[in-house]
């Protein structure tokens, strides 16, 4: 059997069902608990797609030494944990989550940052899979041989506070904020204690829900229309949000329709908003 290659950043349920038993395929469940929910991920999703493995964004695949949530782990940690999940250099990875399209783009972007291009998200996620009555099984512990995955870190795809503070006011850079309009303007308080409201000056607001309908990413034609309304030209795009998760939804949307260089601000407003000496607009 020839190697399995993924040619687009989003795959359909029918594509995944067709390739579910391919030996190169690795299916990852990157579910997060619903925002502001007290339930654990396991309580919300006692089932998984057949042969799926849990990609733990909150714990295993985030920097546990950081005071910020969901920050990128080191390439060494990412390598060892990906190997533990049985991921290989030639793996074709499809990632889904329990909310349709929510956390899976974060995991997709992390693999891109770590140099793995053969990766996509499942459009519609687990809800779409269940609706079509496709193969599921109880959530099982990972029991696979270690993989040979090795991270090839791409620093241009991730931005830190120093980098963003140096370019936010430059005409060749556009920062796109995926938070809700109310949080962007400061009219709605931030959910994290101690954070002021508002946004990074010169950034534009594109709530992540704008590129999603019924739990699925909008078609490419609709995404193109959305991004055509922005003055992008040859600007470098930096995506931000509250904690680096939903920014990746907009990054995924843009990846399909605009060729601009792009990165995700890993600390996002959870970092910027805690420093009163950094400028902010409301």
Report on this model:
The chain has 282 residues and is α/β, with parallel strands linked by helices. The protein is 26% helix and 16% strand. It has helices spanning 13-19, 41-44, 75-84, 104-113, 125-131, 161-167, 181-185, 220-228, 247-255, 268-272, and strands at 10-11, 25-29, 47-49, 53-54, 92-96, 119-122, 136-138, 158-159, 173-177, 204-205, 212-213, 216-217, 236-240, 262-265. Strand 11 (212-213) and strand 12 (216-217) form a beta hairpin. The protein is globular and about 50 Å long.
**SSE topology string:** EHEHEEHEHEHEEHEHEEEHEHEH
Q: Quaternary arrangement of the chains shown?
A: single chain
Spans where pLDDT lies below 50 across 5 or more residues: 36-43
Shape: globular
The strand count comes to: 14
SS-based class:
alpha/beta
Query: Over the alpha carbons, how many angstroms does the gyration radius reach?
Result: 18 Å
Q: What is the CATH C level class of the largest domain, in words?
A: Alpha Beta
- Count of structural domains: 2
Named at the architecture level, the CATH assignment of the largest domain is 3-Layer(aba) Sandwich
The CATH topology of the largest domain comes to Oxidized Rhodanese, domain 1
Distance linking N and C termini:
56 Å
Give the averaged pLDDT, no decimals: 94
**What is the tally of helical segments?**
10
Helix content: 25-40%
Major sheet characteristics: 5 strands, parallel
In terms of DSSP E residues, the strand content is 15-25%
Give the strand order, joined by hyphens, for the main sheet: 1-6-5-2-4
| CATH homologous superfamily placement of the largest domain | Rhodanese-like domain
